[in-house]
Amino acid sequence: MNVTILGIESSCDDTSVAIVQNRKILANVTANQEIHAQYGGVVPELASRAHQQNIVPALDQALRIANIELKDLSAIAFTSGPGLLGSLLVGTSFAKSLSLSLKVPLIEVHHMKAHILAHLIDDAGQKNPTFPFLCLTVSGGHTQIVKLNSASEFELLGSTIDDAAGEAFDKAGKIMGLAYPAGPEIDRRAKLGNAERFQFAKPKVPHLDFSFSGLKTSFLYFLQKEMKREPKFIEENLNDLCASLQKCIVDILMDKLEKAALQEDIKQIAIAGGVSANSGLRKALLEREKKLDWSSYLPSFEFTTDNGAMIAISGYYQYLADDFCDLSVVAKARKPMNL
Fold first, then answer.
1. 21, 335 in Cβ contact below 8 A?
2. Three-class secondary structure of residue 42 per DSSP
3. What's the CA dihedral at 147, 151, 152, 153 to 10 degrees?
4. 241: pLDDT confidence band, cut at 50, 70 and 90?
5. Taking the complete model, does pTM exceed 0.85, yes or no?
6. Which of 3, 24, 72, 169 could be joined to 68 by an S-S link, Cβ 3.0–4.6 Å?
7. Exposure string (b/e) for 260-281, b if CB count within 10 Å is 16 or more?
């Protein structure tokens, strides 16, 4: 019997609706919100308003692409957290309404778990990891190393104690005068620069946790010092600055991931989240694969950003486990991995 899941993602500024049948994607529609670029970051109130405008057209388009009707859905899966509360409320309320009207089960999905489970989508161009495997999830709001023993058993091994890696990219980019989001532009310029030109201190954090606030601060002080001597320092050294900064962040991530793999004696290694699109991180993972005999799993670029397909595939596995919720479920801006 086919299990057809509708996935709704609205945790930040992307409104995404996807339909997955078993593990195959039938449709994955995302409406982006470009308005935030002029403010240098996501404005929560504007994001929630845009979700209200985009969610119905996104659903309509997804149904047409999948060539199915609402009555064909087995369940409704949605992001309940973590994320921006106003944005989450739009998706949560919409999912509840659909579930009630269609009389189909409702499934709440953890946003960060969904990023990882995107690796289990049946995509002909990608290989799927087998359990157990480790996943480095890196985004604008989260940096974590997670061990998966099954599609429902997650073990958080380490996380950031302050800023996330994606946040460090964006804040450093803002300091250099780059437009938001700065991560993709830093990545583009890093390919043109010398990554060994500048050295930045790496924070010493115990165990498998991360810290990026100190790096961001030291980067700011470094630029302020250099600009006192040469006002055009950033402009004249931008590519090298981007390359050196990116290398530092990637090295921090990979050092911890390598430590986790050794600790857990696991060689199946995946990355997920928005920063998993970064070319420097992807290259570093593939280099470790050759050096350490890892089996590496890189997500397709469409699954690195927030998307409905990752919510739908998570919903699929929860559907098989009868892991449903009722209409009393609420959105949660903060949602630990163990919930």
1. no
2. coil
3. -20
4. very high
5. yes
6. 72
7. bbeebebebbbbbbbbbbbebb
CATH topology assigned to domain 129-298: Nucleotidyltransferase; domain 5 (3.30.420)
- Mapped onto helix, strand or coil, the DSSP state of residue 158 is strand
Question: What would the pLDDT profile of 125-150 be if each residue is shown by its tens digit?
Answer: 678 999 999 999 998 889 999 999 99
Would you give the DSSP letter of residue 210?
A: B
Half-sphere exposure of 111 (CA within 13 A, CB side): 36
Residues found in the chain: 339
At 242, the pLDDT band (50, 70, 90 cuts) reads: very high
Q: Which CATH code is given to the segment(s) 4-118+303-320? A: 3.30.420.40
Q: Quick check: 37 pLDDT over 80? A: no
Structure confidence at residue 5 (pLDDT): 98
Domain ranges of the chain: 4-118+303-320, 129-298
Task: Tokens for 153, please give them.
Answer: 């058993």
- Beta-carbon neighbour count of residue 165 at 10 Å? 28
Distance CA 74, CA 297 (A): 29
Q: Do domains 4-118+303-320 and 129-298 have the same CATH topology?
A: yes
**DSSP conformation class of 276:** G
Mean pLDDT computed over every residue of the chain: 94
Q: What is the DSSP letter of 333?
A: S
Q: Which two tokens stand for residue 335?
A: 């949602």
Residue 111 pLDDT more than 60? Answer: yes
Q: Quote the tokens at residue 22.
A: 């078993």
Dihedral (CA of 131, 132, 135, 141) sign: positive
d(CA 99, CA 254): 42
- The stretches of the chain forming alpha helices (DSSP H) are 44-66, 85-102, 111-117, 165-175, 183-190, 213-229, 233-264, 279-292, 308-320
Q: Is the peptide bond before 206 cis (omega within 30 degrees of 0)?
A: no
Compute the C-alpha angle 67/68/72, nearest 5°. 165
